[in-house]
Structure formats: C-alpha cells, structure tokens
C-alpha cells in the first residue's frame, strides 16, 4: 500500500494533512512519524516533497494566513482596514488554535505571510506612520490578536470565584454584571480592538503634532 500512496504525495497535501492533524490532536501530536503514518507512508518519504519539519510549519502558516482578509488595506484608511484584518486574523487562528504555539515560535519566511505583512505595513506607512514605527505597531497588534484567538478557544467561564466570592467582592460583582448577550471572549475582543485602534490613532496624531 505504501508505494501507490507515496506517488500521490505532494507538498501541499502534506501540509494540509499536518494542519488537520494539529487541529484534531493538538500541536504535541505533530511529529513527522505521526504525520507520515496518517498519510500511509514512511517518514523518509516526506523529504521527497518537503524540506522537513520547519518547511511543513511554514506551509501550515500559509494555510492559516490564506484565511485572513487583507483586501481592505488597498482601498480603505488604515484604521478601518486594520480593524477588518484583525477580525479575520482572530477568526482564522480561532479555527486553528493548536497552530499558535508552533507558529509564534518559528521564524517567518512564507511568501504568503510576508505578503500579508507587506499589505499591513504598506497601509500604515501610507497613513502617515514613520517607517521606524511600522514593525512595533504590527507586532503590538499581532500580539493582541494571538491572545484574543487563544481566548476565543478557551471556556466562556474562565474566572469562577465560587465559594471565594466574598473575598473578591468587586470581581464577583463584575462577573455577575457581565451582559449575557455577548460571550466573554467576544466582548473582550471588541473592547480591546477598539482601544487599540483608538490608541494608535492618538499616538500617530501626537507624533505628527510633535513633528510639526
């Protein structure tokens, strides 16, 4: 059975199976022997199509990035475009939370990811951000989005004072006052994203004023 399956292998198929494996069993399950077993081949067969583990991880990154929407950066003001991209970014990683730890700790070289970042920083620069600040802005936004994606995959009830409610009265009251119509993660994301974009706009305006 191994020989005909090997003939059907491709770099894209290997990467897609890796993403399926990570989604189903978590990042700890992602090993080349485990991936090869799912594909019905020997681990050595993978190297005929991909450069190894790092190349597969970059391929997985590409698949996740392809689920993000950067179109607005070419036509909308950067605050609006950033907001739309942020939502699609969070949604993409929320669908694949197991990839966050793998992707956040490996150097980025995927052309698709580089193109996405180029769209973001290009829009920021056209919007008036100095080139020296672009990476800092991008990194701060991405850190918030990755945390928000992880939070979306977490239980809605993350803080439960229980029998200790009397010891933390303000916290217990705040939890009780939370609106039921929105999930905790969605509400936190909306507040955080609004504050982040407002803060960036204010910072840009201040820097422009200082320059003037």
Mean pLDDT: 91
**Largest sheet features:** none
For the record, the CATH architecture of the largest domain stands as: Orthogonal Bundle
Structural class: mainly alpha
| Percent range of helical residues | 55-70%
Number of domains: 2
CATH superfamily of the largest domain: Tetracycline Repressor, domain 2
Could you name the CATH topology of the largest domain?
A: Tetracycline Repressor, domain 2
CATH class of the largest domain, please?
Mainly Alpha
Oligomer: single chain
Residue fraction in strands: under 5%
Count of separate DSSP helical elements: 11
Order of helices and strands: HHHHHHHHHHH
Q: Radius of gyration, rounded?
A: 21 Å
Report the strand count: 0
**N→C terminal distance:** 71 Å
Low-confidence stretches: 1-6
Q: What shape does the CA trace take?
A: flat
Give a verbal description of the structure.
The protein is mainly alpha-helical and 212 residues long. It folds into 2 domains: 2-51, Homeodomain-like (Arc Repressor Mutant, subunit A, Orthogonal Bundle); 70-211, Tetracycline Repressor, domain 2. 67% of the residues lie in helices and 0% in strands. Helix 2 crosses helix 5. The longest helix has 28 residues, at 184-211. The N and C termini lie far apart (71 Å). 23% of the residues are buried.
């Amino acid at each position: 059975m191994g020989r005909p399956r090997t003939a059907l292998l491709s770099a894209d198929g290997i990467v897609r199976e890796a993403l399926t494996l990570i989604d189903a069993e978590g990042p700890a399950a992602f090993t080349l022997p485990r991936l090869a077993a799912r594909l019905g081949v020997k681990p050595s067969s993978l190297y005929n199509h991909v450069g190894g583990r790092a190349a597969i991880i970059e391929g997985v990154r590409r698949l996740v990035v392809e689920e993000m929407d950067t179109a607005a950066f070419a036509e909308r003001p950067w605050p609006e475009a950033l907001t739309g991209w942020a939502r699609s970014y969070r949604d993409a990683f929320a669908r694949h939370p197991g990839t966050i730890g793998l992707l956040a700790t490996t150097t980025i070289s995927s052309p698709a990811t580089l193109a996405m970042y180029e769209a973001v920083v290009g829009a920021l620069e056209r919007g008036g951000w100095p080139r020296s600040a672009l990476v800092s802005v991008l990194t701060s936004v991405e850190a918030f989005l990755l945390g928000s994606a992880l939070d979306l995959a977490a239980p809605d009830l993350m803080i439960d004072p229980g029998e200790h409610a009397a010891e933390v009265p303000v916290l217990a009251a705040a939890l009780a006052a939370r609106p039921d119509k929105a999930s905790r993660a969605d509400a936190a994301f909306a507040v955080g994203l609004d504050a982040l974009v407002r803060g960036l706009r204010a910072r840009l305006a201040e820097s422009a004023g200082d320059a003037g």
